[in-house]
Structure formats: structure tokens, C-alpha cells
């Protein structure tokens, strides 16, 4: 069912749009940046995701008759404004990073240049799309890295916060590195491989565990993974699985452990399977896993080949929100860029003014060493000296052996979509490749190395100038 998401917005976005419409700011162009301030789970980086959903929203942005009638019923808005909304269309431009790009606090990940009404109105949907999927992609990548090349399956649909969170969470998890999802509709919509075998209810539906296993293997001889912990894992489940595999001559098989001490049970199960000659039988583990439990299991020598991760992935339970924000950075009047800055007693909440571009600096080995934010009219080139905006005495010069890559690319120009996202398989491949460009120190779970995001001298000076101008004397 096609859903018109136009009214999925904060009500103040409509009241502000009405205010702009009734003032001299109706056609004023503005620049908004989306960025985030802190990395989930105190990690070293996040993964950008969700822009595809937002661009689809932009393409279908329109007010229906029911929307107009609802707004009329609120008696906040005059008829001229409602007439304007009947033909509303986004006519601005949107620049964003490629989906799957590693991202860092403070840098623009999406920039919108549009009329004030249009730019303000799209705030909520942009934030909910990118915040949610970036959160899940980031969490999944942490879990995937903890698994050390073992497969991670997303098993969390039934714990997700609603249908959209389940479907789009599965998409984001795949981009983050999961090998597939239990969510079947995600396979239909996004080609995320649907994976799964049986539940405990299958075993309980038969008079014996042996009978349940045998019937399942007859039906699915090429996908014979059996859940072995319904009664007693080592005394019943694994022996019955071995018996059925041997009787039916199935060698491409697996077992799943969903309770108990996974490290101990997996090692004992591996011994039993190997002694039976089933050395190729795979062991899957599930049951409230996350990156820390998986890391500990591997450290303890658990014999697990793949992991199924549910609620702690699909809800990012340890850090369930991604703090992306959307702030005005400039106003354009008479073709002149007038920078704007938000000031706060919390230094991390002070914004970077102006229309900006973001560059990533790579060394000759392809490793990312720093990001560089410059004003849009600047043309940075190597050699280039960077300094920390919070500790400006810290400087580093990058010579011609390094390379600069511009990260913000046009998705929409003057209301027309000019860039279509790749398929989700290609996005996943890109994301995993880009994570590999980061130093291992940045990828630590605890106390990761700080990746520097620095400002150009001109942007730094502009920011200081605005801070001084707005200082209360």
C-alpha cells in the first residue's frame, strides 16, 4: 500500500511554513545542514544510511485533499496558504554523502539548499530516515566486526519498533554487514537475503524430537539446520540431530543453539558432531547477543560459525537513538551568502556557519586520515595544513602523496533527482570497503582513537567572527 508521508512532520514545520508564506521570506533561499554530535556506543565512527528513503519522500512530496481539509479544520491557516500547498513541490537542491560512508560528528552529512518553506518542512522526515537507518547500520557493523568474519544474521523483526522499523532496519543491517535477515518482506523490497529455519514450536508439534527433526530434514534436505535446545541440548538435541543427518545422508547441515551457555555447549556439540564425521555441520548461536557477548564467546573458544542477533541489533538497545540534528547554516539574499550560527553554552552544540563542502583525506595506502570542512567557494588542494578547531595549536600537513575526495554529492538539483542510489548489495559492498579504509585504532569498541574533522582557516575565522559579533557584552 502506497502511503503519503507528506504529513509525517512536526506541526511547527507547517506553522512556520505559513509564517514564511505570509512574510517577506516566502521565496528566501536558505541552507540547512544535517549533522550529528556523538557516535552511538561511544564508538569511533558511524555509517551513513537512510538517504534513499528520504529521496523517495522528496519525489512523492505532495498535499492531498484530505491533508488540506485537515489543515483547514485546524483554523490556523488562511486560504491563500492552503491554495499554495495544493501545488506544493520541492524545488530546491540536496547534497549528501553516499550511503554506506563512514561519518563523524560535526560534519554535514546532508545539506539542503531551498526556499525556507521547503527546507523547513522536510526536516522531520530527513531526520527520522537518516537517524534510524544510520543507527542500525552502525550497530550492525560493530556486531559484524566482533564476529570476526563469521556470518551475522538479523533476527529482530518481532522486537522492532513497528513494521517500518523492522523492514528498514533489516535494510540498514544488511548495509552494515549482516549476511541476511529473518524479515521476508525485506528480501522482496530490497533483496536482503531472507534466512531462517525453524522455531521450538516445530519440535513441540511432533510426538518426539527425533520425529520433528527427521520430517524437517526430509522437506528441506538442502537447508537442514535444526534447533537443538527444546529439551536437552547435549543429551537429546544434538544426538537426535546427528542420528537424523546420518540416517538421511545429509552432510550440508547445521544446528542452532538458542539458550544455555553458548561457549560450553558449542564446544561440546562440535566434539560430538566431529566424532560422528559431521565435520562440515555448522553451528549457529542466537539468544540476546550483541558485540560484547559475541566477542567474549570467541575469546572463550566458542565453536560458533554464524550468529543470529535480534533485539539488541534491531533496536540498538545499548544506544537506541542517533542524535542527528538539522540546523540553519546560511541565508541567501540577492545572491549573497549570509552565514548563520547557533550558539550554546555546550561547545558541541555551536554550529558551523555557511554553505560548506566536506573532503576526506586518504594516504597513499588508501587509509582515511582526516576530514576537512571548507566553505563551498574554497578550492582546497595539496599540500594542505589542517589544525584542530578545538585545539588549534595541533597541526598536520598533508603533501601531494595524499589525496582529497569530496564527500557531499548532489542528489537533487532544482527539484529534480539527479542521483539514484545503487542497489542494496552494492551499497553494502561500498560500506564494508569504506570501513576498511579506517585505521584499526578508530574501530576499537572502547576508547577509540579520535578521527579528526577539521575546519578550513577561512571557515574557522568566520565562525570566530560570528561568535564575537553575537557575544553579549
How would you summarize the topology of this molecule?
Elements (H helix, E strand, L loop, with lengths): L10 H11 L7 E8 L9 E2 L3 H9 L5 H9 L5 H8 L6 E4 L5 E2 L6 E6 H6 L1 H24 L4 E4 L8 H14 L3 E2 L2 H7 L9 H5 L4 H11 L4 E4 L5 H16 L4 E5 L4 H14 L6 E4 L5 H9 L6 E4 L1 H4 L9 E10 L2 E4 L16 E7 L5 E8 L8 E4 L7 E4 L4 E4 L2 E5 L2 E2 L6 H13 L15 E4 L1 H13 L4
Parallel strand pairs: 6-7, 6-11, 8-9, 9-10, 10-11, 15-21
Antiparallel strand pairs: 1-5, 1-12, 2-4, 3-5, 3-19, 12-13, 14-15, 14-18, 16-17, 19-20
Helix pairs in contact: 2-6, 3-4, 6-7, 6-13, 7-15, 10-11, 11-12
Largest sheet: 7 strands, antiparallel
Known CATH architecture of the domain at 11-136 and 321-353 and 405-449: Alpha-Beta Barrel
Mean pLDDT, all residues: 95
Total helical segments: 16
The level of helicity is 25-40%
Task: Report the structural category.
Answer: alpha/beta
Strand tally: 21
Low-pLDDT residue spans: none
Distance between the termini: 58 Å
Highest-level CATH class of the domain at 11-136 and 321-353 and 405-449 = Alpha Beta
Rg over CA atoms, rounded to whole Å, is 26 Å
Give the overall shape.
globular
CATH domain fold name of the domain at 11-136 and 321-353 and 405-449: nicotinate phosphoribosyltransferase
Amino acid at each position: 500500500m502506497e502511503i503519503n508521508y507528506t504529513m509525517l512532520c512536526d506541526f511547527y514545520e507547517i506553522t512556520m511554513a505559513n509564517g514564511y508564506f505570509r512574510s517577506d521570506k516566502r521565496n528566501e533561499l536558505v541552507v540547512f545542514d544535517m549533522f550529528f554530535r556523538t557516535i552511538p556506543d561511544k564508538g569511533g565512527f558511524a555509517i551513513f544510511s537512510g538517504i534513499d528513503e528520504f529521496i523517495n519522500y522528496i519525489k512523492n512530496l505532495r498535499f492531498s485533499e484530505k491533508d488540506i481539509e485537515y489543515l483547514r479544520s485546524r483554523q490556523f491557516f488562511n486560504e491563500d496558504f492552503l491554495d499554495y500547498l495544493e501545488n506544493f513541490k520541492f524545488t530546491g537542491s540536496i547534497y549528501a554523502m553516499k550511503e554506506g560512508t563512514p561519518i563523524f560528528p560535526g560534519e554535514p552529512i546532508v545539506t539542503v539548499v531551498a526556499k525556507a518553506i521547503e527546507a523547513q518542512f522536510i526536516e522531520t522526515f530527513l531526520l527520522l530516515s537518516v537517524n534510524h537507518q544510520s543507527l542500525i547500520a552502525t550497530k550492525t557493523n560493530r556486531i559484524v566486526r566482533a564476529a570476526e568474519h563469521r556470518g551475522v544474521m538479523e533476527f529482530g523483526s518481532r522486537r522492532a519498533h513497528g513494521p517500518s522499523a523492522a523492514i528498514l532496519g533489516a535494510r540498514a543491517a544488511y548495509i552494515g554487514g549482516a549476511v541476511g535477515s529473518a524479515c521476508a518482506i525485506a528480501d522482496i523490497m530490497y533483496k536482503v537475503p531472507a534466512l531462517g529455519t525453524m522455531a521450538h514450536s516445530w519440535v513441540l508439534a511432533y510426538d518426539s524430537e527425533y520425529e520433528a527433526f527427521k520430517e524437517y530434514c526430509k522437506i528441506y534436505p538442502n537447508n537442514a539446520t535444526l534447533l537443538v535446545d527444546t529439551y536437552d541440548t547435549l543429551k537429546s538435541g544434538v544426538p537426535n540431530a546427528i542420528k537424523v543427518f546420518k540416517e538421511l545422508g545429509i552432510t550440508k547441515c547445521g544446528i542452532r543453539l538458542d539458550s544455555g551457555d553458548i561457549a560450553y555447549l558449542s564446544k561440546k556439540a562440535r566434539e560430538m558432531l566431529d566424532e560422528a564425521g559431521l565435520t562440515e555441520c555448522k553451528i549457529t548461536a542466537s539468544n540476546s547477543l550483541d558485540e560484547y557477548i559475541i566477542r567474549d564467546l570467541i575469546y572463550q573458544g566458542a565453536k560458533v560459525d554464524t550468529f543470529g542477533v535480534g533485539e539488541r541489533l534491531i533496536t540498538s538497545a545499548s544506544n537506541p537513538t542517533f542524535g542527528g540534528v538539522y540546523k540553519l547554516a546560511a541565508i541567501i539574499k540577492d545572491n549573497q551568502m549570509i552565514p548563520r550560527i547557533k550558539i550554546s553554552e555546550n561547545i558541541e552544540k555551536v554550529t558551523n556557519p555557511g554553505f560548506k563542502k566536506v573532503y576526506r583525506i586518504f594516504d597513499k595506502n588508501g587509509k582515511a586520515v582526516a576530514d576537512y570542512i571548507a566553505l563551498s567557494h574554497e578550492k582546497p588542494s595539496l599540500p594542505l595544513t589542517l589544525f584542530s578547531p578545538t585545539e588549534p595549536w595541533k597541526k598536520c600537513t598533508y603533501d601531494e602523496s595524499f589525496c582529497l575526495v569530496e564527500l557531499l554529492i548532489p542528489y537533487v538539483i532544482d527539484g529534480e533527482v539527479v542521483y539514484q542510489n545503487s542497489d542494496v548489495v552494492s551499497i553494502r559492498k561500498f560500506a564494508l570497503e569504506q570501513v576498511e579504509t579506517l585505521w584499526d585504532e578508530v574501530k576499537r569498541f572502547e576508547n577509540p582513537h579520535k578521527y579528526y574533522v577539521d575546519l578550513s582557516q577561512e571557515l574557522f575565522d568566520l565562525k570566530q567572527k560570528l561568535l564575537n559579533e553575537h557575544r553579549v557584552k
